[in-house]
Write a structure and sequence with these properties.
3 helices; alpha+beta; 4 strands; four-stranded antiparallel beta sheet; elongated; single chain
Length: 104
């Protein structure tokens, strides 16, 4: 491999958009869980703890909301996902990308 010979792998915008849509769905489920009335939760047999339902709802909103934000940032990102060359690997695949990793 010469210095100018490199392999560029682009990010899949379709898969990232599916991640964003899925995260929006789970944020919606979390909002529904938080908005449930405590009396309605207590009347059901399966989910009779308002604290559990509201806690899981808030957890869904926060976690999947962050996943959606990272996904939207990646959709707008113009940099390629992965670059392989003779000097090393440049990683730009996720919200916590490693950047340039040299070969040793």
């Amino acid at each position: 491999m010469t210095l100018t010979d490199e392999k560029i792998i682009a990010l899949s915008k379709t898969k990232i958009l599916l991640l964003v849509l899925g995260s929006l769905a789970f944020v919606g489920i979390g909002v529904w869980m938080v908005s449930m009335d405590a009396k309605l939760i207590a009347a059901q047999r399966r989910f009779n703890s308002p604290l559990l339902m509201h806690g899981l709802g808030y957890l869904c909103i926060v976690f999947f909301g962050l996943c959606g934000v990272v996904g939207l940032n990646k959709v707008c990102d113009k940099k390629p996902g992965l670059i392989l060359n003779s000097r090393g690997i440049t990683d730009n695949t996720s919200g916590l990308s490693a950047g340039f990793v040299p070969w040793h």
